[in-house]
Design goal:
Elements: H1 8-18, H2 21-29, H3 40-53, H4 58-71, H5 78-83, H6 86-91, H7 96-110, H8 124-131, H9 139-148, H10 161-170, H11 179-185, H12 193-209
Helix pairs in contact: 3-4, 3-7, 8-9, 10-12
Length: about 210
């Protein structure tokens, strides 16, 4: 499991000691975000939001998510999802596949095959193993949950296009780095790879804006 309770200042100091280029990245983009573990009661809504946002433009995803959360009177719970008809979910703009994913998630939380309440105590591998049982939740979504909801410092999402693109910019390569090569390249930055990924995203966004 990743170390906990380290400040962004501490992390960038560690990264700069590993790779001097991070001093310039901090100058350009500032400190990475502080990581705080999401309370157990908010982990289910977090995953619902992640499912609803998949493969949609941000504006459309936010509109659909807003309707579902409004229908739930705030934050959806497993009980809400299981007691809500697919027709009502579809009326919010939820696709049939995503409605199935939400029900599968709620069912697994209810029968304790997914243990959101004590998930912060589990290893990264155990969290990914549990979450990827759910229809519609793959390794990437599980990694984002680790990084954001569980505040893990050493998540390295090598399949993420933005991380690959940012790494390619950082190293001034002409071709997008392959996931396997990126996996090996990230080893030297353990146990702070979540923050390395954050800087890769910033570099990718900056490169996109300059086109």
């Amino acid at each position: 499991m990743s170390p906990t309770n380290y400040s962004p200042t501490h992390i960038v100091g560690e990264l700069q000691a590993i790779d001097g280029r991070f001093a310039e990245l901090v100058e350009r983009f500032g400190l990475p975000p502080a990581r705080r573990i999401v309370k157990p009661a908010l982990r289910f809504p977090y995953l619902c939001r992640a499912i609803l946002h998949q493969q949609l433009a941000t504006k459309a995803a936010e509109a659909i998510t807003g309707r579902v959360f409004h229908l739930a009177d705030g934050q959806p719970t497993p009980q809400f999802i299981l007691s809500t008809s697919e027709e009502d979910l579809r009326s919010c703009g939820v696709s049939g596949a995503k409605a199935t994913s939400l029900v599968d998630l709620a069912t697994r939380v209810q029968n304790n095959s997914i243990t959101l309440d004590n998930m912060a105590r589990l290893s990264d591998e155990a969290v990914i193993s549990q979450l990827t049982q759910v229809r519609g939740i793959g390794p990437w979504t599980a990694q984002m949950f680790l990084m954001s909801a569980l505040a893990r410092h050493d998540v390295w999402p090598v399949l993420d296009y933005g991380v690959r693109a940012g790494w390619t910019v950082l190293n001034d390569h002409n071709e997008l780095i392959a996931p396997k090569a990126l996996d090996a390249a990230g080893d030297r930055y353990r146990p702070w790879r979540s923050s390395v990924a954050w800087y890769c995203w910033r570099l990718a966004d900056d490169a996109k804006d300059q086109r």
